[in-house]
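FAQ: What does the model actually see?

It sees only this:
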Amino acid sequence: MSWKTKHHKVYEARVVTDALARLAKHFDLATLPFSGEELQTLATRARESFRAFESDEKQQRLARYRTHLASLYGEERVGPVWAALVEINNEIGYEEK
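And it is asked to produce this:
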């Protein structure tokens, strides 16, 4: 793996960690029904989807995961978290410019 690829992976991991920290300001993560792994996956896929906004494949992958979580926990629990992650990724994207 090249140093650029390694650097990009480390950077994206930091951004996802930052997104989860910002999400914690909106919600008490302990009270959410999602496991830590589910939140991490949701944040990672939301970031991938944001970075590749023209990629139908990434959008569909994220939509499938959101549907999966909604089937487990209900859309009323997933929707607000999803909306917050979209807002957070937009903020981060603005800061990256």
